[in-house]
Amino acid sequence: MNKNKMTAMLALISSLSMVVACGAESDPAAQTSSGQEASQETGSSAAEAPSPDLNGVPEVVATVNGEDIGKDEFTRVYENQFQQATLQAQMSGQEPDQDALKKSAVESMVGTELLIQEAQQQEIEATEAQIGDALAAAAESNQVSEDEFLAALEEQGTDRDEVTAQLKQQVEVETVVEKEIGTFSATGEELQAAYDEAKAQHEQMPAESSEASEMPSYEEVKPQLKQQVVQEKEGTATQELVEELHADSDVEVKI
């Protein structure tokens, strides 16, 4: 399988698992109503929704230590991120900034490629058990069975062998990240601060929206708050690792 295609698959499947934790869902109360609101907004403004602009995208969008990231791979990742950004933009009333989104997409792919290469350099090899666990976790995070998850990806043109190979690479990347940055936890103070921030955001929502989605109690959303805080710490540390790898690598972005 083409290695750059694997890079695109890694970013695509990772984005499927991360979408719930990103963007508009920072308010725990919004989890009870934002899906319905987004669906209504999508239906009412589908005809006005912008489309991804890929004009001028070169055949090779970036080169990382001699490995090319191609336009086809970039297109898959960009269209996925554009769809998510469009849904969020419909709720805010603003169209996504496609230039900024393209930059974000290609930087994400470069970061993924750097981590893939680091895992290879350290000769990290995922086991079948780890791959199976990764498949189960990916399906669970999307609230579907493993068969439903695989079927959804197959409809997008990704068969089971490709998914297995992708998950193998994902495990290896996660292993090198954990090895380099360690693991994180959330303190009670951090959880309370995250809840207070979410509560303040909820109170700033329009009256009709805040009334429709009552703010849950701290105890009700404590597991989600813990996940959010830990993910933020992991994200910051991972970005720092990527920047270190970037500084020691030959990277050329062409978009």
UniProtKB/TrEMBL annotation:
Region: Disordered, residue numbers: 25-58, 198-255
Composition bias type Polar residues, residue spans: 29-45
Transmembrane listed as a keyword: no
Signal peptide: 1-23
Comp. bias (Basic and acidic residues): 243-255
Alphabetically ordered keywords of this record: Isomerase, Signal
Coiled coil location: none
Transmembrane residue ranges: none
Molecular function via GO: isomerase activity
InterPro entries: PrsA_foldase, Trigger_fact/SurA_dom_sf
Low complexity composition bias: residue spans: 203-218
Descriptive protein name: Peptidylprolyl isomerase
Species, as recorded: Kocuria rosea
